[in-house]
Write a structure and sequence with these properties.
Elements: E1 5-11, H1 19-29, E2 34-40, H2 46-51, E3 60-63, H3 68-74, E4 77-78, H4 80-85, E5 90-93, E6 99-102, H5 105-116, E7 126-130, H6 134-145, E8 150-154, H7 158-168, E9 172-175, H8 177-183, E10 189-192, E11 219-222, H9 231-238, E12 242-244, H10 247-253, H11 255-262, H12 270-282
Helix pairs in contact: 5-6, 5-10
The chain binds 2'-monophosphoadenosine-5'-diphosphate (ATR).
2'-monophosphoadenosine-5'-diphosphate is lined by residues 131-136, 155-157, 160, 193-196.
Length: 283
């Protein structure tokens, strides 16, 4: 009998993760014998868990909050995205039995835009990125990889934006919210990576930027997908920007992991999107 391939998502807490729905959809779609489960690990347990994957019969898995930086430190090998972002969200054991770590968030961000708006990166190369947390790092890495020449990072705590500018180099310009409005008309792509407008983070308020002066054809995308239409996206859409929601990033970031563990590069289908959307709307 073929060996049962097993993978996981781990975090603390982990019960709200939608990764099992995504990977089990693909296992079924491709008729593969395998399993993908949510496994909770406290910060104390996580290092032992990650170092003993093979003994547990696990080929690898996804890592989420709060373990992404610890996973980065524990890996024996890391891909270029993980090195640049400083966090690992995907683990796999390679042919030499080494623990490998990758970061697929930047891939997921760009692949989602490629799928929804294939010309999103074909025009001008100036971006405005709102927020300077972990997600912002992945977005900056993706934008730099796609040849963006000027990326303004706006953050409430401007020091965090400055730290990103130091880390990623001279194409990044740090700014505070008082300056943000002035940059709207210069941007070809505007990305919200802040938690402003995310469900559970206070009342849905107006997003603190006016997009009416944005360039014709400018793209707006949010990495938040609950709600699917965030106040940021609603206002950008109203102002005529081309909008892409954040759900596709979640789906596309899962693709490389599945391929590592189960040997098939899976497709992000409309059916999968609908399954996750139904689950999100239930919660
Ligand atoms: P993630 O890893 O998902 O990016 P994070 O590191 O907590 O999460 O970052 C959240 C981002 O949302 C930060 O840019 C944060 O700004 P600060 O660095 O100043 O905290 C931003 N953010 C959260 N609440 C905000 C608010 N009320 N106004 C403006 N920015 C906010």
């Amino acid at each position: 009998m073929a060996e049962m391939k097993q993978a996981f998502v781990t975090g603390f807490p982990i019960k709200h993760s939608r990764s099992p729905l995504i990977h089990n959809y693909w296992l079924q779609r491709y008729g593969l014998t395998g399993s993908y489960k949510a496994i909770e690990n406290s910060p104390e347990n996580f290092p032992h868990f990650a170092k003993t994957l093979a003994e547990q019969g696990l080929r690898g898995g996804n890592v989420t909050i709060p373990h992404k930086e610890t996973a980065f430190a524990l890996c024996e090998k890391r891909d270029a995205a993980a090195e640049a972002i400083g966090a690992v969200n995907t683990l796999w054991i390679d042919a030499d039995n080494k623990l490998n770590g990758g970061n697929t968030d930047a891939y997921g961000f760009a692949a989602n835009l490629d799928a929804q708006l294939p010309d999103w990166d074909k025009g001008g190369k100036t971006a405005l990125v709102l927020g300077a947390g972990g997600a912002s790092r992945a977005v900056l890495y993706a934008l730099l990889n796609r040849g963006f020449e000027k990326i303004i990072v706006v953050n409430r705590t401007v020091e965090r934006a400055q730290a990103l500018a130091e880390h990623f180099g001279s194409k990044i310009l740090a700014a505070d919210w008082d300056q943000a409005q002035g940059f709207v008309r210069t941007a070809d792509v505007i990305v919200n990576t802040t938690s402003l407008g995310m469900s559970g983070h206070g009342e849905a308020e107006a997003f603190p930027l006016d997009f009416s002066a944005a360039k014709a054809g400018a793209v707006a995308t949010d990495i938040v997908y609950i709600p699917l239409e965030t106040p940021f996206l609603a206002q950008a859409r109203q102002a005529g920007l081309r909008c892409v929601d954040g759900l596709g990033m979640l789906l596309h970031q899962a693709v490389p992991g599945f391929e590592h563990w189960f040997g098939v590069r899976p497709e992000v289908t409309d059916e999968l999107r609908q399954i996750i959307l139904n689950d999100v709307q239930k919660s």
